[in-house]
UniProtKB/TrEMBL annotation, chains A, B:
Organism lineage string: Bacteria, Pseudomonadati, Pseudomonadota, Alphaproteobacteria, Hyphomicrobiales
Residues annotated to bind substrate: R238, D368
Record flagged with keyword Acyltransferase: yes
Pathway the protein contributes to: Amino-acid biosynthesis; L-methionine biosynthesis via de novo pathway; O-acetyl-L-homoserine from L-homoserine: step 1/1
EC number: 2.3.1.31
Protein name, entry field: Homoserine O-acetyltransferase
Organism listed in the record: Salinarimonas ramus
Amino acid sequence: MTAPAPIADSTLAREARNQADEPQSHVARFGRDEPLMMDCGTALAPWQLAYQTYGTLNADRTNAILVCHALTGDQHVANDHPVTGKPGWWTSFVGPGRPLDTDRFFVVCANVIGGCMGSTGPASTNPDTGAPWGLDFPLVTIRDMVRAQAMLMSRLGVEDLFCVAGGSMGGMQVLEWAALYPHRVFAAMPIAASARHSAQNIAFHEVGRQAVMADPDWRGGRYLEEGARPRKGLAVARMGAHVTYLSESALHRKFGRRFQGRDAPTFSFDADFQIESYLRHQGITFVERFDANSYLYVTRAMDYFDLADEHGGKLADAFRGTRSRFFVMSFTSDWLFPTEESRAVVRALNAAGASVSFVEVESDKGHDAFLLDEPDMFAAAKGFIDGAAAARGI
Amino acid sequence: MTAPAPIADSTLAREARNQADEPQSHVARFGRDEPLMMDCGTALAPWQLAYQTYGTLNADRTNAILVCHALTGDQHVANDHPVTGKPGWWTSFVGPGRPLDTDRFFVVCANVIGGCMGSTGPASTNPDTGAPWGLDFPLVTIRDMVRAQAMLMSRLGVEDLFCVAGGSMGGMQVLEWAALYPHRVFAAMPIAASARHSAQNIAFHEVGRQAVMADPDWRGGRYLEEGARPRKGLAVARMGAHVTYLSESALHRKFGRRFQGRDAPTFSFDADFQIESYLRHQGITFVERFDANSYLYVTRAMDYFDLADEHGGKLADAFRGTRSRFFVMSFTSDWLFPTEESRAVVRALNAAGASVSFVEVESDKGHDAFLLDEPDMFAAAKGFIDGAAAARGI
């Protein structure tokens, strides 16, 4: 199977309230007869996932890899982003000769349900009202994201995944995949992730949500209908979150206390320090590509994630009887998803008798290390993938 | 000397735009002939500091201790707060039988210049316009705060301080006191502090400032004149900052992933988790007692603080020739002002040949540990103070 041609949908395009409704990628549509059964009790229909593919599915359909994206990622893993024009978010990991080698594997990545790059989410049109869903969109969980991806993979003719891989929220999805569809996952690679969102991480997310909701242009979530956008609030949320993705040492190395374009303070509230200028830029550019309500929904999905709780309180029970092989990776300077979280996953996998390897990569780049150039990470991931491929005979 | 009676100023009270202008504490006023010479080049006059005192100055005037408050603290160290009605912020440390024993010492604490509890700041009236200063107030530095305190202490007849003590931003002031007025400081106790604000800390502060400025009710800083208050923006800033004051383990112990008043998620954006409810409460209560522009000014002062930079780039030169004795304290779980920052201060003091003791207190309470019940901290501080008092013969 090669990548299908993008499908145009003039109806959807007409109704689109923002660029997210016109995905420059493939779209899998599910009608009223194929609802997404969600944890909140809603049967969502119709719905759709926007996705990208790279490489070719082999004749045995045994070489498919699903990549799961993080909070503000999307399906554009290894192609230039249609909105920003920048390279995909994981070109270091996915491509010819990369650990997820598109010369060997058929790589799929879908925008999560609740997202804003073409998958159904709060910015999509509610078919019952003709208006954007806004806060009427049902709350999404990590498990809902995975259920949606499973239906997509079936649609693509892939019942058995060679590998599911992802970092941060993507890693949460990997763990959920292994727990929910163990028979469909040959290998699982959760990176810089955890089996439950910590109190501190919930706290940071809540601050971001409050920043969005504090913006009067959020309009109680109805900003699309009212022609507004809560840009300032979303930018503040992004700035705050961005600080948590980096380590103090990375910030010190990149910016230190250096002033922006001068040697001394201005004694004003201008962006005196380079770090201030950098953060403001991060906030401003983010709002051009991301929907504020999607930000609320996807952060909430992470907060709700607690894989042990889904299995009677015992994390090992989430993986009982699994035959998947696991490769867990963390980074020394990641204080948002610290190594201890990965160790808890590894302990549970060991208790469940699973095959698991674990690597803590020495890096000073913080949580975002999984997106950056980390040769040790590439080498370790490539070793795991190549070994798994040999075991599967591909 | 006993504490002077509070001074009423009906003119100031009339002009007051908020409760901060009517301090329920003593006020030291400095006229046009006693300007505060500020780092930004401004000679501020007239100006005032609101302050509290506890205990009695001895006949030799050798038993005065200056306590320096943190970012959102104020002069109400050991008495009930006039706005919130809650106990003072350091009753654990200051009082009869406490490490800073008010039966033995004369303890003074002043609201910093730029603050909002009665000291001159952006909410005060600009005498040239009759309107609140707003952003026309000159930018403040830690050194300016210390210069103002030094003038206050002279006004109170105290040229030599037995001790200067404080945590966080208060600890920055302690270090600045020791560097700027070494002959006036017998003992210095900086707690959970650093000699320069880190890139990560500047970043968190900038997010908070942007949250305030994103609130349309901030009105470009002119909210007092326009009868508005940027409550939502300031609440978001406080929520974000509050997360940084606690450790993940403290958050986990206090809140974990527990839901608020129920067993399961609501699948909504209500405060589902206890930590969310707690943070929202922190934000809401903070805006009742703090001025938004003061928040901008005082965070900025911390960002600008770089004691080494004030001394040609070498921190040891800030303390060269000092005869003060130092006691530096940090907390194991403080990731905002980690122990490494205190170690850098200790190394510089050692290089300068200063007398210095250092204790890293084992605590899981994060940066806020210095405000909380930490017996090891009390014991260590009391030991230092008692030893210094014996050395000074008081």
